[in-house]
Each structure stands twice: as C-alpha cells, then as structure tokens.
Amino acid sequence: MQYSSKRNPCPVCGRNKDSDCRWNDEVMFCHCGSSFAPPQHLKVGETLIVNGMEWALVKTDAGHSGRAFVFKPHRQLENTFNYSPHIYKEQKTKKDELFRIAIQAFEDFLKVSKAALDAGNFQECTLEELRKAKKLIERAVEEGKELKTVMLQMQRNDRRYSDYLELIDQRNKEINYLKKNADSFCWEHLGEIE
Ligand SMILES: [Zn+2]
After folding, report:
1. Which residues contact 142 (CB under 8 A, 6 or more apart)?
2. How far does the centroid of ligand 1 lie from the alpha carbon of residue 9, in Å?
3. Average pLDDT per 10 consecutive residues for the chain, totaling 194 residues
C-alpha cells in the first residue's frame, strides 16, 4: 500500500501534506479533508480517470476514519454500477415529469384564483353570483393550500419549485384576504349563505 506524502501525492486528490490517502493497484482510499478531498460531486458507481485508468467510486464514508472515498478499478462486465447513468437519467425524467404536472396544477390554480379575484365586486353581485363567487374563492383557497403543501415537498430535491412557491404564497395571501372580505360582506348583508 502506498501512502500520500510530500514526495508521493494522492493520485485522486493530490494530498501531499500527510498520509491520510492510501492506495495500491486494487483499491484507493482517498480521504475527505478540508484542504484535500476527492471530487465531492461524484456518486457511488460513477467513475474517474486516474493515471489513465478508470476507477469506480464504490463507497463513501469508509476507511479507518470513516471519511474516505473508496475506488476500485472499473470493470465493464461485472460492474453493476454501469447502470447508474441509466438510473440517473430515469430519475431525472421522472423528476421532469413531476415538475411538468406540478406546473400544470400551478397554472390551473392561477386561473381559478384569478377568476375568484375578478369576482370580487360583491356590491354589484346578485345573490346567485355571490354564491358562485364564494364557491370560487373557497376552491381557490383549498387549491392554493394543497399546491403549496405538494410543492414544499417537491422542493426538497428540486430547487426549481422555489420561484413558484413564492408566487403561490403571494396569490394565497390575496385570496385569503378576499375570502375574509367576502365572508364579512355576506355576514353583514345577508347573514350566513350556503
Ligand atoms: Zn486523496
């Protein structure tokens, strides 16, 4: 086994200040330190070219310190990690599909809430129109709540939702304000209506 040193830097991260990385022809332990570390974007199953050879990352949080990346020579045939680009692509496709559906729901919500906001002039409404407007407002409030819950969950592994969440919050505020107005208008002028 070789150890990293001033004379013999780690082939993965270039560590030369101490002996925290070690390797031979079969395996490499590259230590994740503050000044030297293997490429952190690398995921298990992905490969790296070191000294003209392809090595696959097989483990993280390993070695004596529990803070090393472990690499083994990449073997085309027996290495099941070959499939990871596939899986990655599949997950990405799923993520994009979810995103597409969420944005569709978002656009529907914008339409419903816009219609509710436009129906906000209660003074000129007939009772029938008022009833409709109240229904619309309630639907918008519900949809806004639901959409926000779903998007908050999605946002955990997809940052694209942040901007939409902001817009939803804004619209929810307007709708809740409108609902308050509608409720007090009905109460003052009509008593409770169904
Ligand atoms: Zn190293």
Report:
1. none
2. 8
3. 95 95 94 94 90 90 92 69 65 86 93 88 83 91 93 87 93 94 84 58
